Amino acid sequence: MTQWDERAREAAESVRRLFGRRLLGMPLTHLARVDHPVRRPIFGPWNYWWQAHYIDALVDEVLREQTQGDPARARSARRLAHRTLVSIGMRNAGRFTNSYYDDMAWLLLAAHRLETQGGSAGPLPRATRAHAGRALRSTIERGETPDLGGGVFWNTAHDFKNLPATGPVALFRARVGDLDRAQALVDWAYAHLHDPTTGMFRDGIEIQPDGGTRLTPHVFTYNQGTVLGTLTELASRGRPDSAHRAADLVDALRTHLTTQTAGRLALRTHGDGDGGLFTGILVRYLALAARSPDLDSPTRATAAQLVRDNAHLLWDGRQSLSLPKALSMPFGHVTVFSPDPARPASETQPPGIPLELSSQLQAWTILEAAASLPE
Prior knowledge:
By secondary structure, this protein is mainly α. 57% of the residues lie in helices and 9% in strands. Strand 5 (204-207) and strand 6 form a beta hairpin.
C-alpha cells in the first residue's frame, strides 16, 4: 500500500465518521449530513448534488481497495454507495429528479459510474440504478435544446444555459458512447464560453427579460474539469482534436488557476458551501487526464503534478479533531482538511466553526485522485 492509499483511506474514514448517517435511522439507508456538528434540522438543506459526489468518492474507494487487495473494505464502500443512491430517492420525496439539470447530471454520472465500475450489490440496488438512470436521462433531455446555439439549460426555468449543466451532460454522453452529441456540447462551450486569451471557460449565457442575452464571465474550477474530462474521454475514443484541446486546457490551468505555495502549485478554490467542492471536481478529471495514454506525455505530467501538489498541500495542512465517544470507534479522532490547499486547516477550520461536507469531500476526492496515479 502506498502512502497515498493510506492517506485516501484516512480521508474516507474521517468523512464517513463525521457525516455518514442512516436516513431517519432507517436500516439499509445511508446519506451524508451536510455539516458537523449538525446545525440544521433534519429536513433542512441537504444538498442533493453533494450526495452525488459522495457516491463518486465511494466508488473511488471501491476501486482503490480492490486494487490493494482488501475485498472486505471494497464491499463495505460499495454497499454504502448503493444505499446512498437509494436514500437520495427516498429523501427527495420518492424521486430522483429535481428542477436543476446540473444536479441531475451529477447524479446520473455517479449512478452510471457505480453501475459500470462499482460492482453489483444485489437485485434491488440494480433495479434502483436502472430506475434512477431512466428518470434522470429522460428529464435531462428536456434541458438540452438548440436555443442559444446548443448547450444545456441550468434549470427548468430555461433562462440560463451554462457549463455547470452542459459539462457533466457532455461527459455522460461521451462515457455512454454518444460521441456526436458529446462533441456538439463541447463545441458549443468552445464557441460561446471559451476565452481564447486565457484558455479558460466562462460560466454561461443568461436570457434577459427583453429577450437579449448576457455572458456570465465567472471562471470556476469545476467547469474546466468537466470539459477536460469530456475531452479526455473523446480522445480515448479516437477523436485526436480532443487530445490537442485537452493539452491546451491543462497548460492554461497551470498558468491561470494556480499559485506557488510552499514550493507547490496550489489550485484556485472557491470558499465554502457549493464552492467547497469545485476544485475537488477539477482534480478528479486532472487525474483522469494524467492516467490517459491518449494524451501526450507533457500534458499527463502537468496534470499529475497538479493532482499531487494539491494532495500534498492538503495533507501537510491537515489537523486532527477529537470526537465524542459515540463517534470515535475505532479511533478517538478524525482528520480534518482545509477547503483551500494554500492554507492550513488550522486557519480555515478554527474550533467552534462547523465543518462542511463539501470541503471535506473535496479533500477526500483529491486524495483519492492522488492514490489513483501510478507511482
